[in-house]
Amino acid sequence: MTRLLLADDHPIVLEGLAALLQAEGFDIVARCPNGDAATAAIATHDPDIAVLDIQVPGASGLAILRGIRSRGAARPKVIILTASLDQNQIVEAVELEADGLVLKEQVADRIVECIENVASGVQWIDNDVLKRVIGDLARREARAVATKPLSARETEVARLAARGLRNRDIGQALGLTESTVKMHMGNAFDKLGVSSRAELAAMARDLGLA
């Protein structure tokens, strides 16, 4: 019998998921309301699979997955539940080789199939999530290919702008006049093919600048 650990901060979701999976014959070894409790329960109960909400309070589902991967631990396998298609979080989950990824709105229909596949050693990712990830990775690759390299100063200006600093604040941080900052900002916009600070922030994250 596959032994499961569940983590979600919504009691109704947690209990409903536990009831559904118990009815399907799975053994629920722990039900955790936050990530810290889940981390402790993983060490105590050694479940086969941990089913984790991606944004559970405390140590998030991604943080727990990251820790398991950094230790090189074979157990538990990890299934991530997500209520929204946040591209950055989903891409990180895929890059961390989550064993399963399911949209919460599809849990009732797909979680059993996901667990059964994961238990047998097959990675299972919701089709809607997979389409979004593939599209996002393709856009990131296209951006990376299309962008021109920034100078060291343009990189500094872009990094600070992506963190939300105004031109005046960037100038004070780097010892530049505001007009010089505007010049470097314009160059960065042109080279990265963006037209707003929001687009610049997204591009900076894609390129690892932020």
TrEMBL record:
Organism taxonomic ancestry: Bacteria, Pseudomonadati, Pseudomonadota, Alphaproteobacteria, Sphingomonadales
Domain HTH luxR-type as annotated: residue spans: 143-208
GO terms, molecular function: DNA binding
SMART domains recorded: HTH_LUXR, REC
Keyword set, alphabetical order: DNA-binding, Phosphoprotein
4-aspartylphosphate modified-residue sites: 53
Domain of life from the UniProt record: Bacteria
Name the record gives this protein: DNA-binding response regulator
Response regulatory domain residues: 3-119
PANTHER family: TRANSCRIPTIONAL REGULATORY PROTEIN DESR, TWO-COMPONENT RESPONSE REGULATOR
InterPro entries for the chain: CheY-like_superfamily (IPR011006), NreC/VraR/RcsB-like_REC (IPR058245), Sig_transdc_resp-reg_C-effctor (IPR016032), Sig_transdc_resp-reg_receiver (IPR001789), Tscrpt_reg_LuxR_C (IPR000792), WalR-like (IPR039420), WH-like_DNA-bd_sf (IPR036388)
Entry annotated with the keyword DNA-binding: yes
Pfam families: GerE, Response_reg
GO BP field: phosphorelay signal transduction system; regulation of DNA-templated transcription
